[in-house]
Amino acid sequence: MPASQNYEAFFRRSIDDRDAFWAEQAQGVDWHQPYDRVCNYDRPPFARWFEGGLTNLCHNAVDRHLKGRAEQNALIFVSTETNTEKAYSFKELQQEVQRFAAIYQSLGVKKGDRVLIYMPMIAEACFAMLAAVRLGAVHTVVFGGFASHALASRIDDATPTVIVSADAGMRGGKVVPYKHLLDEAIELAGHKPASVVMVNRGLADLAPVAGRDVDYAALREQFLDAQVPCEWVDSTHPSYILYTSGTTGKPKGVQRDTGGYCVALAASMKHIYQGEPGETFFSTSDIGWVVGHSYIIYGPLINGMATIMYEGLPTRPDAGIWWSLVEKYKVSVMFSAPTAARVLKKQDPAYLTQYDLSSLKALFLAGEPLDEPTATWMADAIKKPIIDNYWQTETGWPIMAICNGVEPAPTKFGSPGKAVYGFDVRLIDETTGEEITEPNRKGVIAAEGPLPPGCLQTIWGDDARYVKTYWSSIHGRTMYSTFDWGVKDADGYFFILGRTDDVINVAGHRLGTREIEESISSHPNVAEVAVVGMADQLKGQVAVAFVVLKDASRAADPASAREQEQAIMKTVDEQLGAVARPAMVRFVGTLPKTRSGKLLRRAIQAVCEGRDPGDLTTMDDPAALQQIRDQLA
Ligand code: AMP
């Protein structure tokens, strides 16, 4: 393939000559048995990519690199919390993964079984993920910041055979114990895992449950020389489930395949991120999020790159820490979130430039809107291209980006770029369902099926919900909805204008307001609640809760209102985790609703942000919005 080609032609071919295009991309991965069909779209919207092919994600990420890269760094684990730094070569990574796979086997894990991983950012989490897909088991990583109720609902949905966890994580020098949250979650869940593998970091009390908990280190000793071959699985075999928030309280298990995901990631490394085999990739995300799956673990490793797994803050011991790692490990591609850049923006830029950043080609930012001041500050500070890209847990890799690996193109401030090859993106008028073709008119960002390889196959265990949620919201058409608003300019660059649903984005973390509302409603003093996202300088958005108490006198004076607020925040902390805690809880006598009883979240949000709440003719009691205003004053 020529180094530079016309992007428009490349994109068109991905849509108009889909199978030939993706067959070419599929050459970037190893197939144990070739596929019969590039894309089976006989049953829309279910796409089956590379049907008939046999492959394995762990083989592509690890084993195939032993030829030629056995001694090269594969995984570099850095914790500024425990002052640990350890690099694993591809050979060592393969050995650790085989040991973990042998542990799974000894606990009865078979192909298709689920393994739930609830862990901090430590190397063992990476081994646990790769070992699962090595056996054809399906991993589901639950973000370590979630608490027992959030974890319990995921245990019940995924019904794992085994759970892997650790005694604790650490953040900002403080130990964050996991074990009691896990025990509570298993207690709450209807499904009980057969075994729990515990990694003991020596940070917190473990109190093993007899007959269920097993010690990772002791088992690892038994399997030091384990040889566990990769299980060849169908390309369409699920590799993992990753839960994400939606408009209901019940999280959705995004199910990913094996072959399509592998091909999509391999291609993205070449066309979007431009990392070369042998170089080092540094993504500052967490394995609990989609970026962590695609660009801490699988993407870089599939591409034969070393990947850095970092536990700690971007500012500790000082704001130079990430950049010192860039120098030390000659990082060529870095991936972070706008929130992290905004945190760094508060620091002296000298911290960033005291290190040799000459290896770094670009810094990619994704997960939330990138504001112009932050992008400019960052570009000035590190003197490298800052490249925004837009995607979702559902898609697994970018829907919009600048594909510099195909044809170098300028970035535009505030835009994550153009539609990425494979995504037949359309802007749709919300009321008529018609496609918007003129530039700069706002619409819902949607895509014609099939979605390209790497995107969600379905919602785990719920095909009907998959179709209803994602493919039925655009007037009379079977189209994928991103639930984001956007506009496209005359050059084909998109600008993202926020969600069309009740999902909010706090510091790049996606949260469902319904989930937070359900948690707050469980507090015995609460009669009703509305949670909305409010614009925030640092975190992009924060959650704000407006609560109607069963007994209003409980919040009659500022001191008792503060007490109620703290009690409600504690409930959210305990059930969902501090990540979902509202920034403030305010008490009102009634909530703004339509006459049919529907909460007017968008009007509340507008008031919170000092905007016009729009048409209120359907509103039941206009005084309710005034109460919100009064509470914010
Ligand atoms: P998640 O599934 O957690 O990755 O969140 C996906 C959502 O985050 C998208 O639907 C957008 O609302 C938002 N998002 C992700 N990337 C960007 C970006 N580059 N610019 C604006 N919003 C983004």
TrEMBL record:
Gene Ontology BP annotations: propionate catabolic process, 2-methylcitrate cycle
| Residues covered by the Acetyl-coenzyme A synthetase N-terminal domain | 7-61
Q: Which UniProt keywords apply?
A: ATP-binding, Ligase, Nucleotide-binding
Domain of life, source organism: Bacteria
> InterPro entries of this UniProt entry?
ACAS_N, AMP-bd_C, AMP-bd_C_sf, AMP-binding_CS, AMP-dep_synth/lig_dom, ANL_N_sf, Propion_PrpE
* Domain AMP-binding enzyme C-terminal as annotated: residue spans: 515-598
Membership in a protein family: Belongs to the ATP-dependent AMP-binding enzyme family.
Give the protein's recorded name. Propionate--CoA ligase
